[in-house]
Amino acid sequence: MGYYDVDEILAAGTKFSCKFNYDIPGLGYLEGNPGRQLNKNAKIELPLWLASVLAIVTGDQEHDDEEALPFVQFLSPEMFSSKVVNAIKSDAPTLDVHSISGQFYTLGIKWATLFSDVELAGVINKMLLERALEINRHASSVSVDAGVAPSDSTGTLLMTLDEFEKKLYKETHDTYRDAKLWLSRR
Amino acid sequence: MYGDLANKLILEAKRTQQLVNTNASSELPMFQEEMVHLILKEVSQLQRNAEFLKLQEEGGKVSKCQYFVTMLCMERNKRCLLAYEKVRSEVLASLAWEHNGMEFFSDITGKTQDSGNLSHYEQEYLKEYSQLVSDMKTGDLIDVDLSGSLTPPSDVFIDVRVLRDAGEIQTEYGVFNLIKGSQFFVRQADVERLIQQGYLQKL
Question: What interface predicted TM-score (ipTM) does this complex get?
Answer without folding.
Answer: 0.83
